[in-house]
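Supplementary Methods S3. Input chains for the assembly prediction are listed below.
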Amino acid sequence: MSRAAWCLLLLGLAAPASSAALQVLIAQGLGGEKTYDEQFATQTAALRTAANALTAPANVQVLSGAQATRENIEAALRRLATAPADDRLVLYLVGHGSFDGDEYKFNIPGPDLTGRTLAALLNALPMRDQLVVAGGSSSGALQDLLKSDTRIVITGTRSGTESNITRFADEFAVALGEADADIDKNGSVSAQEAFDFAQRRVKDFYQRDVRLATEHAVLRGQRAPRFTLARLPGAAGEAVMADEPLQSPERSRILAALDALRLRKDQLPPTEYDAQLETLLLQLATLDLGAAPGARP
Amino acid sequence: MNRTSANSASAHTARRLLGAALLLMGTLAMRIEARGLSYGAVTDAGLQRCDAMQAAGRRPAAQECWRALLNIADPVLQAEVSWALDDFRAANQLFQAATRARPNDAMLRVRWGELFIDTHQDSEAIKLFNEAIKLDAANAWARVNAASVLIGQYSKEAREYLDAVLKGKSPPGALLRAQLLAARVALEDGSDLDAAEQLLKQAMALATANNLPRQEVHALLAALAQIRNGNSAASIAAALQENPRYGELYLTLGHFQDIRRRYDEATALYRKALEVQPELWDAHVQLGTGLMRDNRFTEARTHFESAFKGDPYNPVTINTLRLLDSVARFDTLVWPEAAAGNAANATAPQIIVRVDKRESAVLAPYVRRLTEQAMAGYSQRYRFQLRQPVVIEIYNNHEDFAVRTAGMPGLGLLGVTFGHVLAMDSPSSRAVNDFHWGSTLWHELAHVYTLESTDHRVPRWFSEGISVYEEWRSGPIKGVSIPMFVYGALAAGKALPIADLDRGFIRPEYEQQVHVSYMQAGLTCDYIAQRWGFGKLADMLAQFRRGGTTAEAVQAALNISADTFDRQFGEWLRDRFGAVFAGLKPLTDARAAAAKAAADKQWSAAVPAAQQALRILPDDVEEGSPYVPLAMAQQALGQDDAARQTLLDYWQRGGYEPQALGTLAQLLYKAGRKDDAVAVMQSINYVAPFDYAQHGTTGDWLLELNRPGEALTEFQVALALNPPDQVMAHYRLARAHYALKSNAEARRELLHALEIAPSYRPAQQLLLELAGSPPKT
Ligand SMILES: [Zn+2]
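Predicted structure tokens for the full assembly:
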């Protein structure tokens, strides 16, 4: 991992873990034809499963089919206006988007939801920690509209003009249940990991088929490596999600020390760095595995 | 010639077989540096006087003489003089202007065309010669020039042009050039040296009678003597007497050594050519090419750079310089590694590998294992120790490889052996699974032994035959694998007599004859080994080392005549493949039916069709092999045991499709046959080595089998492929090091893994274990 990423990790840790809740809204738009409707339903199901494992059912809202109207989406977002400012928000837009050169539209029953409307709604919310995932066609048009210092925005294309149906959206949903996506093997999939996984799979697909890629996904936002989107089944790793009971102060201390050490990697002689790293890793291992260093677990 | 046939062969048949002992002819029509002898095509008396000085080797005088002519306001004369003074651009413009002024002047177009030959623009040249013939149907100059270009391109029309000049009423100079060209062709062909001698005698008489230059006649007479192992001194002296700066003499002699693969002799002659005539750019190109064959890249580069300065139009020079730039970015691996700091203990290098930096870590372990294994087997079986290290060049860009072997892109071969140096495609230069690179390497390494042990005297067919035979019998994929169309050709009686088998490689008469000849040569060696024992193949090689012909070698080693051999080989072929020959049609039909049924998921129909095809030809493992649909069908029908057996048969007979083998490995592993599973996985590395998951799984299984050394190699390769899961890659390495009791390395890998994933349980566990054991010193 690059140094930049370690830097972000530290920022992530600096945010105080609290009883803040995770709020999830999934809006599934119109497929237009049966295969697309099925595809979008599959994505929604995977996203909902991942969300339910992270937060209370009451915090997960899903709007699909006839319910996914502009009115209902607006209402759902407004309902969150009363949530505490340290809650975190994830908004998934599942479906087609379009772009006419000026306006992005998310395709839903009735009047479309425009990018500008969406930006206004999100900006009005109290929570600073926001993540928007729009993996579908033309979603790149949202990047500029939703840009903010604290918001993470993931889009399936780099601009509004990439208007073909994307593979990225499918792969992103798959990532949330996929151990291969969990690069740091902590039992959960972060926004960054899900993005990297989906991007890798999309690239492989176009390479394998020797086709010119018609989609180029984009992630903007500094906190993506620490924004947890899914917890893998059966995983027993770090619990860094806001809804989880707090991990022990000792564990937090070690992880923070590790992050601090990694930031100083360039300034330390390699042997010194390795020695300090090993000390901290042994402490963590001992804590996690409940064994004293040197003992056979 | 083998170049074009190799290209036209269908892609899949090329997957295993196209490797070659180098016999790529240099272009026959050799480039005359700058403006060559005109033999009377130029009639201006003043110009002829200057040209005569040049022909006598007095270049400075000739240049002065030409420059004086520049004052005469004759555009044609000025074009000729500019050309003579190496100002090709001016010459071209002047010829163009002159042609516009005199559109019906055929000779003008002939001379302009010759200028195009000098600047390596053959198609432009041919256009002008044909225009000249349109203007003047009897023009012999146009024809002889056209022939000279077309012979360089292996064209049949060349002969027609040449015959028209030889048999028609041609001016003496044109006739002389035609005779020299025809003699050159005969000398290259080598099958009728008497005819070549006859032509040269006529040429000598003609030149003498008409007071034309005789240096080229002398040069070819010297070449004739050289080919006959006679004395060429008198002809050499005569040529140099006429023109003491006649470097082309040695260039010609070098060329005739080159095409007989006497590379050392050729290189020495090219050096002599440059001593006599340092500005003979083509000699720089040829010498550079020869030096590269001998792994002397640095010196080669200086010659290509010289050539480029003098003749920037030569595409071979341009391509080779580009290639040398690529090679400069390669890693050079030397095995065994020099013992550090102890010169007395240093072992002489036996293997040198040049490979792109991005691939060396992946390919190195497999190249090394295979090469060492091949060298051990070959040196023992062929009773020969190499005198120089084997140099293996692996090109990840096929066009680089093509330039390396032929000087020009677009070659259809996969590997070429120059002697102790061989060049081949990297598996990454082609689509995945396109060819079995391990088999190609095995094939080329056999050439190294057959060529080096006979000082390159081995006939082409025998060298190829041994290489193919070794692929089948000792290579990384054993099994007699023969493309379907070859059975067709053999059934149609297209096998050549053994004494004539070289012809199938060098002068093929139908599209696929080169491939058929490869297979016939392989089968011939297989037959000899089966009937008389392998030792007789080594005996034949010894015969070739002494310079014997094929017929002599057969007689001496096998104690029968070549004719008898052909008859008995034919009987053996019919015995062995009679059922295939008779069943080609039902075989093809059943194969196609099996493939179609599998594609349509008609599993119960696929099984009997595939089985029928395999009853006729159990060795059918080439592209479209019935084993694959059969195994797919069996798996789909829930018959895992049967599928496993089918794929095992396929693998043991030489099948190598990586996906099928991956399935086989999984089935074997599930059945508890871990050793076999690992063997199958390892064999995939020789066809598709760039899949990190494949290496990871192989390493895991090796660890389970308590073979940590091999596991370590697989994990190192996996890491070199930069897998997305770096944590797992480092953790696996840690496990292998730990199993090898290399605790320091294990610790380092664990730190790498845990640095990324601090709470990864298995790595944490191993770290605790390591901390509990004393560090190894
Ligand atoms: Zn070969």
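Chain A touches chain B through 34 residues (CB under 8 Å). The first strand of chain A starts at residue 22 and ends at 28.
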